[in-house]
Amino acid sequence: MSNFAIVVHGGAGTITPDLYTAEIEKGIRDTLYEAVEAGYYLLGDGEAAVNVVSHVVMVLENSPFFNAGKGAVFTNDGTHELEAAIMNGADLNAGAACGVKNVRNPVVLARKIMEKSGHVYLHGKGAEEFGRLYHVAFEPDEYFFDQFRYDEWRKIKASNTYRLDHSKDNAKKFGTVGAVALDKNGNVAAATSTGGMTNKKYGRIGDSSIIGAGTYANNATCAVSCTGHGEPFLRAVSAYDISCLMEYKGLSLEEASNYLIHEKMKQTHLQGEGGLIAIDTTGNISIAFNTVGMYRGYRRSGEKEHIALYKPNEMPA
Fold first, then answer.
1. Which residues are listed for substrate binding in this entry (predicted)?
2. Is 198 marked within a binding site?
3. Which residue of 203, 210, 231, 317 is most buried, as measured by CB atoms within 10 A?
4. What CATH number does the domain containing 72 carry?
């Protein structure tokens, strides 16, 4: 049987057991499990990696537990601005959208942009117009409403501060979702989706939808999806940096991931908090984060699934 694997994340940050009720934790774990299993069985059936990451990110976008799609946080003006990207390692084809509103599954819009637009990146109303042209699903504002996120926004909407995701007692969580996959034909792909920052202003765009910063895939090296404080990840061109460290310096996937997250991101001029998931074309998987926890899961061909939320040693390497 050819090697194949799926890896997912649902955000990183100050994620500790005391932040959640048992019911919420179960919901988070169940959704991660659903996403991993959906991806695994699609890959087992011979589905292409790019199709799998698109489907898996849709599963996460449809859940209120993550800051993407249905669970997106509120901007300063009380709306939701969504962004997503997808990249196919087989041909370096990519699509991305940012600053869009009411799109049920931003990853679907990113996929349509990749396949139909002749462009890579579309923004705002233009991206929405393009999505309607290709029958991308839209939802009313009520679909995206979450009382907890609304209450968090109301607390700070009159200030100049923002929060990186919904928080409790000043805990920080970066709720971006993402997936990377290796299919039976040896192709890799990556997809990432986010609702950005609570109370963000001025049309701020994070790293998630920017090819090379939050999302990257190349059959010559690996596929990467990042989550964290977007500005440092943008400045470090983080996802592409993993690929470059492998291609030009000969580092392994694990070495490159650990260097970026645990050394480069810790440098004084970056101070980057977050993590990433990555996979190479031989089926090696890397899950690296410098925060207390990270929602994550994976399953390789012939193995059982692994789901974890908290400290690094909760899940086998």
1. 204-207, 227-230
2. no
3. 210
4. 3.60.20.30
Instruction: Identify each DSSP E strand in the chain by its residue range.
Output: 5-13, 82-88, 93-100, 121-123, 173-174, 177-182, 188-194, 215-217, 222-228, 274-280, 285-289, 293-300, 306-308
pLDDT at residue 311, as a whole number: 78
55 is in an annotated binding site: no
Q: Is 207 known to sit in a ligand binding site?
A: yes
* Domain limits for position 127: 5-314
| 186 in a labelled binding site | no
Residue 253 and residue 283 in contact, taking contact as beta carbons nearer than 8 Å: no
SS3 (DSSP) at 165: coil
| Of 311 and 213, the one with more pLDDT | 213
> H-type helices in the chain, by residue range?
22-44, 49-61, 106-112, 124-133, 147-156, 230-235, 238-249, 253-262
Bridge partners of residue 91, in order along the sequence: none
27-76 per-position pLDDT tens digit:
999 999 999 999 999 999 999 999 999 999 999 999 999 999 998 887 77
Find the radius of gyration of the CA atoms of the chain.
Answer: 18
**pLDDT of 76:** 73
pLDDT at 235: 95
Tens-digit pLDDT profile for residues 266-277: 898 898 999 999
Asked whether 86 and 107 are in contact (CB, 8 A), the reply is yes
pLDDT the model gives residue 147: 74
Whether residue 281 contacts residue 186, with contact meaning beta carbons closer than 8 Å, is answered with: yes
> How many domains is the chain partitioned into structurally?
1
User: Active-site residues: which are they?
Assistant: 176
Residue 183 assigned ligand-binding role: no
List Cβ<8 Å contacts ≥24 apart for 252-257.
252/284, 253/222, 253/278, 253/279, 253/280, 253/284, 253/285, 253/286, 254/284, 254/286, 256/222, 256/286, 257/286, 257/287, 257/288
pTM for the model stands at: 0.92
CB atoms within 10 A of CB 22: 8
At 229, list the tokens: 């404080």
Residues 265, 204, 87, 11, CA torsion sign: positive
